[in-house]
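Researcher: Here's a chain I'd like modeled. Treat it as a single chain, no partners, no ligands.
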Amino acid sequence: METPTLLRGLDEQYLVQKFETLIQQAFERGIEEGQKRFTYPPVLRREHLKEILSVAYPTVDKLTRDPSFPRLTAISARYPRDAVFKWIEENTVMIEKYT
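Model: Modeled as a single isolated chain. Structure tokens:
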């Protein structure tokens, strides 16, 4: 049985509205995440990591001891913001291992 043209039009309109809503939500989430990320200074401290990761200091210490965790070599206990966020994106499973 063929769907009447009016119903097909309503289905398409509904799908377009849903798709537009999803795009808007993704855009807003991207803006929010970008604002959060760039409110931190270019060089992070332990306090920033604790806040960003929402973990306790012992967990921050475990993570930063990992050889793959980005850090500045000239200044101890300082971490490059952009490299840290990239590391987080690439290592979310590892973060769960330490928590």
